[in-house]
Amino acid sequence: MTRxxxxxxxNISPNRLAVLECKLALWLRSQGxxxxxxxxxxQVLTQQAAAAGCDFSQMQNNIHTIVEAKTDNFLxxxxxxxxxxxxxxxxxxxxxxxxxxxxxxxxxxxxxxxxGSDLSDADLSNANLQGVNLSGADLSGALLSDxxxxxxxxxxxxxxxxxxxxxxxxxxxxxxANLSNCNLSDxxxSDAILKDxxxxxxGLALTNLTNADFxxxxxKQARMWHDAGLSEQVKQDxxxxxxxxxxxxxx
Length: 251
Prior knowledge:
Structural class: mainly alpha
CATH class of the largest domain: Mainly Beta
CATH architecture of the largest domain: 3 Solenoid
Helix content: 10-25%
Strand content: under 5%
Number of strands: 3
Number of domains: 2
Largest sheet: 3 strands, parallel
Distance between the termini: 63 Å
Strand order of the largest sheet: 1-2-3
CATH superfamily of the largest domain: E3 ubiquitin-protein ligase SopA
């Protein structure tokens, strides 16, 4: 099921759907029904609200506003719905959403479902993306400096040319992710899974690589400088595979 039955059309955009589901979840909570932003859960709770005689008129007005809006911009839709786009979408479902180029600095997306979404060139600096599902998402060129991506699922995500300086990627799943030409300086990749990832020409200066799994990763011309947590054995293996260690101090 991709929508809450009967409340809005089937063919609305991913951005509108994300905003409507979030608005409905918050409205259900205001009616005393504890809700998570999961479609099956929203369906059941909506039916319970109807059975309890809750007044849907305000919610229906909000739905009409979003469905008929002349914009599909995520931030504008959220504002039209009376939502705070930087705070209200934690744990929300933004499957396939188009967030390209948006200023989402400091956004609270913890635990959100962003699989297949487009966040290319978006500003996600200082964002809380802990436990978020970004598998297959496009984050190419995105600014993710100092973002919290702890335990994030970035399987097959594109992070080419992204700036992840200072980001926390502890225990992140970066299997088959495209990290080519990205900036990972001063990032924390401890216990991160980088199996079969593409790190071609990535910058990893002062990066914490403790227990990071580089099995099958393409590290050709990846530039490494004073990284923490690498054993000599792993370092030599990475050099054999094309990584460049620039350990000499500047004179």
